[in-house]
Amino acid sequence: HPTPKLTQQTTTLKPVTANKPKTTTVKPAIKTDPGHAAKLENTQTEHKLRGDVSRQTAEVSSVDDGATLCKQASANSAYTADWCYSPNGCFGYLLVKKKKCRDYPPQVAKEGGAQMRQKIWDMGPDFFRVRLEGPEIVMVPLVHLGQCTYNGTFFLTLDGDYNVHSSLIWPDFSGHGDHPFARPQFNPTVLMSSKLRVKCSAPRVAYKEPSTLPICKSLNPPGGGRWVVTNPAAAKEELKFGWPTNWRDRTGVVFATRFGSGYHWFPYECQYKKYTQEQVVKALGNKRFMWMGDSQSRSMFFPFYNIMNENPILGNPKVKQVNGDLLLKALGGITVKYYRDDLLSPTKIREFSEQYHWFIKSSKHEYDVIFMGLANWPMCGNMQSSGVGLWSLQRYINEVTRIAAQIKEYMKRTGTRVIWHLAPAFPLEVDPYRNSARIVLFNKAAVEIMKKQGIEVFDAYQISDPMFHAAIGYPAGHFNEFHVPDEWATVLTSFLVDNPKPP
Questions:
Q1: Strand positions, DSSP E, 86-211
Q2: pTM as predicted
Q3: Angle (deg, nearest 10), helices 483-498 and 277-284
Q4: What is the rounded CA–CA span in Å between residue 217 and residue 419?
Q5: What is the mean pLDDT of residues 403-421?
Q6: Nearest 10 degrees: Cα torsion 275, 278, 281, 284
Q7: Which of 41, 28, 15, 18 minimizes the C-alpha distance to 82?
């Protein structure tokens, strides 16, 4: 994936850190166990997003900037954590290693044998969340290199001070292994000191005003994106009222209580234009849109409709009956319909998926664009008594493979455009089986399957993951009342205006 061009710069500025922890000067090259050097080099030049959608990254090892400062920053006795950064503090990497790497247990995949076991093993036994919070919010996804060693790189495009939040969320395959081998208990622990800070000065990969960038031609823009402070005063207030600097309470998470206007999500290399409602309605007039899925799909449906309607619907109102539907008329003759279908697959309770099986057989061109997704209910543990949930990775792949083939035939038969949305981040205390590690695993599988069938994919995860603490409201566990749904809707409507036909 393309990386930013880094031009030579000389600077004597030193990163600002709390309590000035001991640092050592090392060359940028990362050392790891023999046999893993090639895999490590790949993560520096081709950084893979959780969910297998690319994000932009800096090539730390190729930068000739004298030396990289590294410090042992681990606050967890079971891990070492080398936090390494450039003298100007604007790019670097994190290398995490588990001190005692046990043999991987064979009992991580319920079905699928060695192939599914390997897919789970490849993520490594542990799952971390590392986020830089300052003028922009940048995630540092850690890629497993083997032998319980993880590497993640970062770069910043805006000057300023950044807090580093890092946590071990799920150890020993407890997050993403198949049930019953994984029995997740949500008890996050700190990975690095909460006092860790970064000061970025004169970044080489400077911030680019979004309006100067080319139009995005994909719902997964090359290089990915990040959240940027666009209203400092509002952002400061939001930090004051619930941003999770100290993010554990009795349930494990301190949720945001105010959020919205201070931040916006922007891609690095292209732009989704901010169209007015009048412009959107004019471009999409008389179009018929349909959303199908569970409540996570519905949390995207309402803000999408709001962009084209005079009176917005707040929150994420339930469609109570199974197989229920909701048809809303918007401006310009536009209609937006939501069908509740939680699984898109046969289950012990047939009505959980009747809508999908009814519509997929149709030969009529009833809709211009259909959005659908599947991941939340297949994971859930609190629905097991109803005969659904706790799917193995193999079952999820089997079902999505079938669905993708049916969608492809449906598109050919009816001329309908179908866009698959990935599962967004999910607050972990609601149901530990629906957790980010499992979502990443399922999303990655869905991307591979949909791409093979030529079906467009919208990555709702990468937009929501940095803001997962804002997933509150009614019903619990959704991005209902804060800014994430508005960003989803803006990206989707802008993309459809500028890309009226699929690639």
A1: 91-98, 127-133, 136-139, 143-146, 149-155, 160-170, 189-190, 197-200
A2: 0.83
A3: 50
A4: 14
A5: 97
A6: -50
A7: 28
